[in-house]
């Protein structure tokens, strides 16, 4: 808790402003997500990055092979091997330098997230902070400690090599946990848990803004019965609690003691820890539900004459949705009291890389905020209802797309497919920047397309040429048949 408090003080005092993507004040007119919790949530979300097609096919092939080769003679041997085999959990990782996100990773079938970071960054990990969705194994920890990282933060539940009851008969996981503790005690890096409590009214604010976001509002116009959102949210909460939370308190204490967190097993520390974990899981489930995994809605191109060609170039819907949720999480770092906007840029290599993200790799991200080094109240923060144009915010606030481009950690290569995910339609100020940067695809909502709101205009997006635009809409293929008098639950009809 002391470490988390120090990190919060770092944000409040504005240390490292010269390299931050926005101001560091924690106060303002709306609740705001701390950077530490943003990095933690992104690490959890990266653990859920959709499996790439090649990995799926390989997994299915292995499953079929195991099924066909299973027989009575080999059953006993197979069971014994399975019992002794280390059960490795998939892990997400956020690499941060000077409080700025420089990469997002997800473990693959062959490599853990820490090893992927070593392959991609090497000695450039020096002085970086790493946020893991699980405590890394000894094989990963020894290498990332050796690279000179500054801090390694992890989610305090089941570690990368699982300690859950079904694998507790194997000593491998316990031996690995002991090795990790020895590496931790002998390293310069701070290996710790960083979970900050959500600020007052943060959860209520996330619930309200998620329900009112462009994607849910667009669906509500087609499907007046919006109970699908609350049902989807409840499903996500159950799903993420199973993944990221140890429901049995005694089992959770056993895991914490095994991974060297015995001092968190006593109250009030233990109850506070679990409450903070629950709050963050609830927040993640709420934000994820704001871009629903829906049968008939997704990111599609409006140009029907090019639909087949563009469809072949577009991302799978589940990956596009995953990246948009990243942008939605980023939006909760905003300083704009009216609307938070998040943007994330990814690109696609021509061949698959070692990461669990397949051919995709991270370029940069941002959210709308005032310029670096300023205080929250230094600039006007009035909305379009304010009559005096001189004290409106639009001339001062830096847009999410602008921050993502400014603080990108890699260059945008013209020969590769790059894509930006923005929670709201890019305005006339940002559209030329996106095209000029060489970004090939835009994924966004389109509620504001063609409109002018006081000083902000959204006219250029509809006229943009040379960039493929994928907006949240009904599947233009026409597979959706709306039956208004259908008695069955809309949840089963609309959601996958």
From TrEMBL:
Residues 62-72 have a biased composition (Polar residues). One of its GO terms (biological process) is DNA cytosine deamination. PROSITE patterns: CYT_DCMP_DEAMINASES_1, CYT_DCMP_DEAMINASES_2. Residues 56-88 are annotated as: Disordered. Keywords: Hydrolase, Metal-binding, Repeat, Zinc. It catalyses: 2'-deoxycytidine + H2O + H(+) = 2'-deoxyuridine + NH4(+); cytidine + H2O + H(+) = uridine + NH4(+). It comes from the Eukaryota. GO terms for molecular function: cytidine deaminase activity; dCMP deaminase activity; importin-alpha family protein binding; protein homodimerization activity; zinc ion binding. Residues 73-171, 318-458 form the CMP/dCMP-type deaminase domain. Its EC number is 3.5.4.5. Residues 73-88 have a biased composition (Basic residues). It is an enzyme of class 3 (hydrolase). Belongs to the cytidine and deoxycytidylate deaminase family. Catalyzes the deamination of cytidine and deoxycytidine into uridine and deoxyuridine, respectively. May play an important role in testicular development and spermatogenesis. PANTHER family: CYTIDINE AND DCMP DEAMINASE DOMAIN-CONTAINING PROTEIN 1, DEOXYCYTIDYLATE DEAMINASE-RELATED. This is Cytidine and dCMP deaminase domain-containing protein 1. It comes from Myotis lucifugus. The lineage of its organism: Eukaryota, Metazoa, Chordata, Craniata, Vertebrata. The gene is CDADC1.
């Amino acid at each position: 808790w002391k470490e988390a408090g120090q990190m919060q003080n770092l944000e409040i005092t504005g240390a490292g402003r010269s390299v931050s993507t926005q101001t560091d004040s924690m106060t303002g007119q709306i609740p705001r997500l701390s950077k530490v919790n943003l990095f933690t949530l992104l690490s959890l979300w990266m653990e859920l990055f959709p499996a790439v097609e090649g990995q799926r096919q390989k997994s299915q092939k292995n499953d079929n092979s195991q099924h066909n080769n299973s027989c009575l003679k080999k059953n006993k041997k197979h069971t014994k091997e399975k019992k002794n085999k280390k059960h490795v959990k998939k892990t997400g990782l956020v690499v941060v330098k000077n409080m700025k996100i420089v990469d997002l990773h997800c473990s693959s079938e062959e490599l853990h997230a820490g090893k992927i970071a070593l392959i991609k960054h090497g000695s450039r990990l020096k002085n970086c902070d790493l946020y893991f969705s699980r405590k890394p194994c000894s094989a990963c920890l020894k290498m990332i400690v050796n690279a000179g990282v500054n801090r390694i933060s992890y989610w305090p539940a089941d570690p990368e090599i699982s300690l859950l009851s079904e694998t507790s008969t194997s000593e491998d996981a316990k031996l690995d946990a002991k090795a990790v503790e020895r590496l931790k005690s002998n390293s310069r890096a701070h290996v710790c848990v960083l979970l900050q409590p959500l600020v007052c009214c943060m959860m209520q604010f996330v619930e309200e803004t998620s329900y009112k976001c462009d994607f849910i509002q667009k669906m509500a116009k087609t499907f007046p019965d919006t109970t699908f959102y609350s049902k989807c949210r409840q499903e996500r909460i159950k799903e993420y609690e199973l993944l990221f939370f140890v429901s049995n308190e005694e089992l959770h204490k056993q895991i914490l003691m095994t991974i060297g967190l015995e001092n968190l097993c006593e109250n009030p520390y233990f109850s506070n820890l679990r409450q903070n974990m629950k709050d963050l899981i609830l927040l993640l489930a709420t934000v994820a539900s704001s871009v629903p995994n829906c049968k008939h809605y997704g990111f599609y191109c409006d140009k029907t004459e090019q639909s087949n060609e563009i469809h072949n170039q577009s991302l799978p819907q589940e990956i596009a949705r995953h990246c948009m949720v990243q942008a939605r999480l980023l939006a909760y770092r905003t300083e704009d009291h009216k609307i938070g906007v998040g943007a994330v840029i990814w690109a696609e290599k021509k061949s698959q890389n070692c990461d669990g993200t397949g051919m995709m790799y991270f370029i940069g991200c941002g959210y709308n905020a005032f310029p670096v080094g300023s205080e929250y109240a230094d600039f006007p923060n009035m909305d379009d209802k304010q009559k005096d144009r001189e004290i409106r915010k639009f001339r001062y606030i830096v847009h999410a797309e602008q921050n993502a481009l400014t603080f990108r950690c890699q260059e945008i290569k013209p020969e590769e497919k790059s894509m930006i995910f923005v929670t709201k339609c890019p305005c006339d100020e940002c559209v030329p920047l996106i095209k000029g940067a060489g970004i090939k695809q835009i994924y966004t909502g389109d509620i504001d397309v063609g409109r002018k709101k006081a000083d902000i205009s959204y006219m250029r997006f509809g006229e943009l040429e040379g960039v493929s635009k994928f907006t949240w809409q009904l599947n233009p293929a026409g597979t959706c048949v709306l039956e208004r008098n259908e008695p069955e639950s809309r949840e089963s009809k609309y959601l996958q």
